[in-house]
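Hi C.,

You asked whether I'd gotten around to modeling the 201-residue construct. I have! Everything is below, sequence then structure, no commentary in between.
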Amino acid sequence: MITWTATDMYGNSDTSTQKITVIDNEIPTISVTNISVNNDAGKCGANVDLGTPLTSDNCGVASITNDAPASFPTGTTFVHWTVTDNAGYTNSATQTVVVTDIEKPLIAAPVSITVNNKPGQCGASVILTAPVNSDNCGVASVTNNAPASFPFGTTIVTWTVADNSGNTATATQSVTVKDVEAPVFSGVPTNTTVSCSGIPR
């Protein structure tokens, strides 16, 4: 409040008051830093320290809030920050948080297999069972390079497991085909009788 006083040449005076209101119409400022981290071991996500954004205001900052989750999933999450000054004005900024899954899937080495050949063939058809596997973010596929039919001897089969983030792991399995089929004679000569002199009778 300002009090104004007017006085004339005879000393008479009068006063009046003036009210001056200063309005803060300046919004606060806010600046954030984007973050990239790897997943926490065994989890498909990460607990992330977001830090504190840089803020300022001519009349002081009242609060800083965000909508961040308790834990961040793999991929990209956008965190919205809001700063409020003491006059009630607000400003916002968006922070990008990227969590990358770098954990390879787990795959157990399959047991070796030994089978006999298929009758009449120098090999065998073998039914393979997928190895035990797992991943923190889920398994996308399990494949192998096994042939349609296994030849005689030992073949090394490579199994590959891929997770939903594109990470892969491999394990090998040996498949042995044994030839247990005895040879078969054909076109055997007829019996022949010879004398002691070696001249056939």
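If it helps when you're writing up: The chain is about 0% helix and 45% strand.

Thanks,
B.
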